[in-house]
Specification:
The complex is a heterodimer. Helices cover 0% and strands 55% of the residues of chain A. By secondary structure, chain A is mainly β. In chain A, a hairpin with a 6-residue loop joins strand 4 and strand 5. In chain B, a hairpin with a 4-residue loop joins strand 8 and strand 9. Classes of the chains: A mainly beta, B mainly beta.
Chain lengths: 116, 116
């Protein structure tokens, strides 16, 4: 599972902290995604970048701020989070987010975030 | 709006027996359908997808899925379960244009336990 890497794997932060999650893909893909995974809920798409341009912002609160400096790297900047933001945050990549038929996505192992 | 239902939170099956993980979907028009698997402490891995053509799709690790348009279902199957198949399985759907550029929508997942 070295195609998509995420750091850190675990993060505990207080509600007043600022932290960032990092994702890197080594697959030569052009699209990258952030998902939130909570127990017994469907995977929630947060953001999509295609060729470094943000194409989807799924009504995510402004305390989550994405950054995509190039097609291989994706960040999620976090500030003033709430306890309900505790979840597994997954990064994924695909060849293209807008093409049809749609390409399958490749996922990283996730960052387990706990907000105290 | 498109949606996916996985009616079973948990499926238990004995090793060597056939397994089925159920998925039904709702889209406007025709769907693209996917199955992903998530092992503990790992990201999601792509198993198989239905785009068009043969209703029976074969994928990784001996899994297959059958697209049934009249029942709007895409159940995942395997003839003989292995203990190593124990994992969380996600069904996902994306609509075919001209419904617009719709993101991939995931179900909430079904936990499969294969008992030796």
């Amino acid at each position: 599972e070295t195609g998509v890497t995420q750091t850190p794997r675990h993060l505990v932060m207080g509600m007043t902290n600022k932290k960032s999650l990092k994702c890197e893909q080594h697959l030569g893909h052009n699209a990258m995604y952030w998902y939130k995974q909570s127990a017994k809920k469907p995977l929630e798409l947060m953001f999509v970048y295609n060729f470094k341009e943000q194409t989807e912002n799924n009504s995510v609160p402004s305390r989550f701020s994405p950054e995509c400096p190039n097609s291989s790297h994706l960040f999620l900047h976090l500030h003033t989070l709430q306890p309900e933001d505790s979840a597994l945050y997954l990064c994924a990549s695909s060849q293209d987010s807008l093409g049809y038929p749609p390409y399958e996505q490749y996922f990283g192992p996730g960052t387990r975030l706990t907000v105290t | 709006a498109q949606s996916v239902a996985q009616p079973e939170d948990q499926v238990n099956v004995a090793e060597g027996n056939p397994l089925t993980v159920k998925c039904t979907y709702s889209v406007s028009g025709n769907p693209y359908l996917f199955w992903y698997v998530q092992y503990p402490n790992r990201g999601l891995q792509f198993l198989l997808k239905y785009i068009t053509g043969d209703n029976l799709v074969k994928g990784s690790y001996g899994f297959e899925a059958e697209f049934n348009k009249s029942q709007t279902s895409f159940h995942l199957k395997k003839p003989s379960a292995l203990v190593s198949d124990s994992a969380l399985y996600f069904c996902a759907v994306r609509a075919i244009p001209p419904s617009g550029n719709t993101p991939l929508v995931f179900g909430k997942g079904t936990r499969l336990s294969v008992i030796a």
